[in-house]
Structures are given as structure tokens and as C-alpha cells.
What does this fold into?
Amino acid sequence: MHTSKLLVFIQTLSTEELKSFGQFVQSPYFNSNKKVVQLYQYIRKSAPNFEAKRLERQKAFKHLFPGQAFKEIKLQQLMSEIVKLLEKFWVQEDFKQATTQQQLLLTKNFRQKKLNPYWEKNQQALATLLQEKNKNNKVGDTHYYQFQLAVELHENIETAEQRNKEPNLQNVSDNLDQYYFINKLKYYCKALNYQRFKSVNYDFTLIEEVLQEVAKGQTKTGEKWLDNPTIAIYYYGVQTLLKPQNEETATIHFKPLKQLLKKHAPYFPRQEIQNMFVLARNFCIKQINSGNRNYLAEVFDLYKIEIDQKLILEEGKLSASTYKNITTVALSLEKFVWLEAFIYDYKWAVNTDTFNFTLAQLRFAQKKYVEVLQLLQDADCEEILLLLANKALLLKTYFELSLDPQNEFIYEDKLENFLVSFTTFLHRKKDTLPKHYIFYLNFAKMVKDMIKATHYNVEKDMSKLQVLSKKLTSITKMTEKPWLRKKMKELMGE
It folds into this structure.
């Protein structure tokens, strides 16, 4: 039973869900088979790991059918019934949270059963709920339910055969347009974003017409399409992906996108608003890659909005990549005071290795090199890429310390010894990390050549440094190039 579909499903349940599902299984409305209840209770006793020997099929069968010969098919049928019940339980739990959907279905039932006074009361309550969501900018799935409610009003007029009453078709059409435009723009954004990574030809029928209609201005009811925050965000998102990355695009499309995200971030479902922020950040990254370093500040502002709105956390955790990305941007802008507060504020959200590395990056930028050594010298990261980054930062730190006249005799030997051990480590990882191996090996070789040009003679060998500077420009597969370029210019007195 340990590798069965049933155990795979049950192991996803929390302690509270195990209890709730037990009540679900015992409900006569959903299950009338007492053996199913008995089997679930037997399995549940093995929580939370479900690794006990009692879950072997023969043992479970003996518990359920004492004295009977083991029959695989008999046990399998009970297990299958629990799987089906668990699938129904998941749907039921989701439905309990879908209060708007419940209201809509109840309204439909009142109409179908010709309980018109109750239909009238319920549809008005649903309309008020949707208006309240709109008033508070609770965007989310509101437009879908507004369309469904418009259809419900139409169906009620037709059912009642009110031939002299307009059957709400204009309202149906207007709400359908809003729902369609939102989703057309949303998934076009996703398609354009995906094409940044992989060449795929998508055929988004009518997308040009949708973009033109949104840009045109007013709807039939006199409102502007861009007054709808969801439509506006996705429209500007599409434009930042489509248009050339120039200052005009930034002014016309990125700036309103950023303002809308800041204003409406609290009102979108978490996953959706996170994807919207990714759109905005991707535009900034394109600008930065094109040489416009001013957009580092824009990325920083976007991250600050997400931090303020607590959007960077997923189930109470902050991903190591997000933590490091925020650190990288803040370091580039020399926001050292802000960054220190951030690193410590979110220390609980990442593991010790990630915390020590990001703090060491900050200390390195602050030229507190001895503290970097204290943070990283004994690091033994489980994640190999973080371990590589640790070693690269240590190599830079030893190099910086060796340039200090007060420390050069102390750290020159340590620098050379560390360089040897780092190179040996890279050669050991050559087969498992071929791509990263060459990037870090070229970095180590460049540092070694810099040592030869600066440490072995009374005077720096300027001719060697000039050769190395040209070599640095020509090598593409090398990590830590910004620091190397900066260091090379300092050594050459530029």
C-alpha cells in the first residue's frame, strides 16, 4: 500500500485536513460503506509519515477481514473508493471558499424552481456583492461573475416569457467584452513573455482588434477601457513586451503600469499580481541590458512595493533566488542601510547558508573584508551553486586583503593557497558542472594572472595588466566580470 495512489494522495493532507476528511468519509451522504470508514481510520493512525509496516496490504486486509484469505481485489476496491471520496472532498473544500459561486448557483436554482421572490432577493444580493468588490477594486474573478449574473438576468426574463421587456442582452454583451478583453490580454502577455525564452509561434486571433479597441478609448457605456485596472495593467504589459525598448515606451507604457501595480496590488489574487510584477521587472531588465542603468532604481522600487504588500512571500517563505535578486539590486544602487535591514528582517525566511552569503556580499561592498571571511570561511553549503558563489566571493576577498600594505604579507600566502584549493575544487566538479566549471575556472585564471602582474614585483607590471584588460573583454564565459573590470581599472590607475 505504501506506493499506492491512495497513500500518495493522503500524504498531501495536513493534520486538520486528515481530521476533516475523516468526518467527510463518515458522512452517509457521501459514503455508506462502513469498511471504507474502517480502512481510512486504520490508515490515518500511521500519520504523518505513513511508513508503518501495518500499511502492508496483507496486514490491512487482515485488520478489515479477520480470518479471511487475502484477496488483493477486495482491498483495492476499498482503496479506490477512498481515492474517489478524497477527490470529492478536495472539490467540496474549494467550493466552501467560493462564496460568489455558491450565490450564483443558488440564484440559478431559485429560477429553475420558479421561486421568483427568492430569486429576486438573491440576485440583488449577488449584484450588491459584486458592486462592493468593484468599489473596493476587488478585481480578481469579479468580471466573470458579472457576466454570469448578466446571463442569469437574461435567462430569468426569457423563462418568465416577459416579451415586452428587453432581455438584458446589451448588459450580457458588455460584461462578456470586459471578461474577454481581460483574458485575451492576460494570456497574450503570457505568450509574449514565454517567447522571450523559447521560439513558439502563437496565433492570437483578434488580438490586434482588442488592442486597438482598448486604445481607442470609450466603451459603448461611455466608460474608458483603461479605467478598468485589470484591462489597463495587461494592456500596458503587452505594450512593454511589444514596443522597442526606448524612453518613449517607458513614459507611455511602463510608468502607468508601475503606478497601477502600486495602487491595485492589494486587490488581485496573489499569483496573478505576482505575474504582473514580473512583467514590469522584465521591461526594466531589458532596459538595463540595453545599457540604461537608470532602470535599476525602477526594479528596486518594484521590489519595495512587493515587500510592502508582502507579495514576495510564498506560504510564509521567501525564495532564495528572490532574496538574492533583491540583494543584488540594492548592492548595485549602494542602498547599504536599507539592505542590511532587509537581510535581517527576512533572516527567518531563508536558510543559514543563504543569509550568511547575502550578508557577506553586503560586507564585501562595505569593504569589511575580515567580516566576509568570518561569515564564509567555514561554509559548507549543500547547494553547489551557492557554494561556488561563496568560494568566488572568498577569492575576491583574499585578493582585496592582499592589496592592503598592512596585510599583504599575511594574506598573500592565504590568497595563493585558496586559489590552488579553489582550482582543484573546480576540476573535481568538471563533469557534474561543465557550464559553471568553465565560467569559474576562467575567473580563477584571471585572478591568478592579476596576482602575477601585481604581487611578484616591487612595481606593478602595467604591460601585463593592459594585456589582461584586453583579454578580459574578449572572454565571454567568465563570472564576476564587473568586479574584475573595476579592479583592473584601479590597478592600472584609471
About this structure: The mean pLDDT is 89.
